[in-house]
Fold these 2 entries.
Entry 1:
Amino acid sequence: MEEEKKQDKEVQGLQAKNSQKQYDKEENLPEQEMEEKLKEEPVNKKMTILNFALIIAIFIGLGIYMISVDGIDNIIEVLKSVNYGWVFLGLICIITHWLCEAITLHFPLKKLYKDHKFFISLKVAMIGQLFNNITPFATGGQPMQAYELTRDGKRISDSLSVLAMKFIVTQTALVVSSAIVVIFQLDFFINLMGGYIWIAAIGFALNIIAIVGVILVGIKKSIVTFFTTPIIKLLGKIHILKNPEHTIEKLDHSIDNFRAQFIYMKDEKMMVLKMFITSVIQSFAYYAITYAIYRAFGNSGVSLWQIIPAQAFLLLVMIFIPTPGSGLGAEGGFYLIFNSIFKEGTINMSILFWRLYTFYLPIIVGALFLIPVKKLSRKKVE
């Protein structure tokens, strides 16, 4: 019996490692269709322009609000008193956040493609940062990352599997690390949140559900199809989907592709552990930006470990705000959560600095990675 299990495991691993070859067959039409569609129209250009216009409007609106509330003279005085050593540390934190994002992505890609370069992982990570921030609910990041990986010669099935795997690890790291800090800083967190503590609980719960859902796709296909198949058929009956059977077939194929990679990744426990540790560092680097801003404006008395759970809560809530980069909701949430611990007259400038780090700077830097450069030799994996 053990010998049979061992043979099954070896077969599954071999299937996953050779996924590039097995999907070259003619029956692999769903993946080919997906790849062609991704190449033809990876992003809605009109919607992107509209989102950029909204982002600029939010920035202008924030500036007008600050001037009307704080006044030019007070803003100038606040800027003169800023400790720019902490401002620079905040910049180091966001760069660390980006590098960890790229490293987490690089681990599985390097396993699947031995000649994969780190610069490509960095480029894909920054493109994800750009499109996550200019699309509602951060929906544009992963499709554009998959598109870029496809352009670099990666299989669409491998790209989507790697991105899904990264989602599991990074979200798990986010929730676990934040939950641990919340436990140790529970009294401070409850006092700071006040009447919003129930929203924090819902935010954590929804992220846990999302993680469990993706894991189920990888280990228990029948549970996923049990729920998705009736929904797809219902959408077909009410004429929302034109061809429900074709949709079910494509979904079934995508799940099989993901499961093949998931089985392979399960055997790479050390790689997953490296991804998890890097993701924890990435989360703390992001949270530390708020602490750097807190200290830059002359505040003291609250530790980094007390800032972390509050910032984690804000990040979880921002996911559900339906504007590019969670605009307006993110600024409002920052004000409601941190206003009580910042010096009077500094909260608005703190919000501006925080958004420059976490919103506008990723857009600017991410856009730089879209500038055409002399292409390296790219060869499609056969």
Note: Residues 50-368 form one domain.
Entry 2:
Amino acid sequence: MSEDADDRDDDWFESALEDEPDDEPGDTDGAESDSPFASDADAGHTPGDESGGDSPFDDGGSPFDDDGDSPFDDDGESPFDDDSDNGEPGGDDESLFGDDFATAFESAGSPGGGSSGTEFEDEDFDSDIPRIDVGIEGLDRMIQGGVPRRHLIVAIGSAGTGKTTFGLQFLHHGLETGEHCVFITLEQSHAAIMDTANDRNWGFDEYEANDQLAIVDLDPVEMANSLDNIRGELPGLIEDFDADRLVLDSVSLLEMMYDNPAKRRTEVFDFTRSLKNAGVTTMLTSEASEDNPYASRHGIIEYLTDAVFVLQYVRSETRETRLAVEIQKIRNANHSRETKPYEITMDGISVYQQANIF
């Protein structure tokens, strides 16, 4: 790699976080940044880099016992014996499992049985795992109990389904509760992201001024070239900023940097693993496959994440085009399997949990 390329790798994060009001996005000639990611280059030390080189961040009893009580004993009293007349269920040539399974389930403690059987209610899935709300009305009620903290989430959808709005709203909810948040965009400028949030009166300017929010716009090619350094130092960056939520919009552009499928999968896997090791709740956005709205473009990220939200269009010859959301999976959480309509308004995304898609 040339010396000019090395210089670009070294200052990509400084450039992304430059906060001089008069500077255009990407201008590195402005005043020194007041970002929470400020450089500690004077000491020649970078989190995760022991060499002191330049950083792109710049800073009872078994049923099989031998006591003769085994149900498979040779004493002729097997519950599966067709001619047992000893008073056990199935006598008179009736099998233990007769015309229905009620008798068998009663002995296993099912509802209606002698044991304390209970139905699968929400409380059956309660756990001690810390959970958070996504911050989208209706959708949080579909997630019974919330998304486990530090999970890796992906929102998959085609153009216009509101993936970026989904991510910004996810961060806005965290900011309102006092969390620190980071938004990394590979698609839009810092100014465009701030305009989108400010149009909805989410106060991102104030959060950023208070060092509670960081908006970072990166060139996807530059990120791909510096991915090894980013992956190694991202956990330290998140820890220094005390970040609770992070959004990357979108992972599809990062995937497109690799032509070889094996290389692409390895790089994306290593990157997502570094995010999980960082201990931050992360949301990724991903373009949907052109052939399958329920899958990502490259069919990788849904297998590497803990939760998958699918945003899609529902078209009908007799009805207008509508937007619908489905929760494909959430590890360690119970959730609705239904597909529900939603709208994108000036208040953000609203999911109509009580409505149905026909």
Note: Residues 23-57, 59-65, 78-125 have pLDDT under 50 and may be disordered.
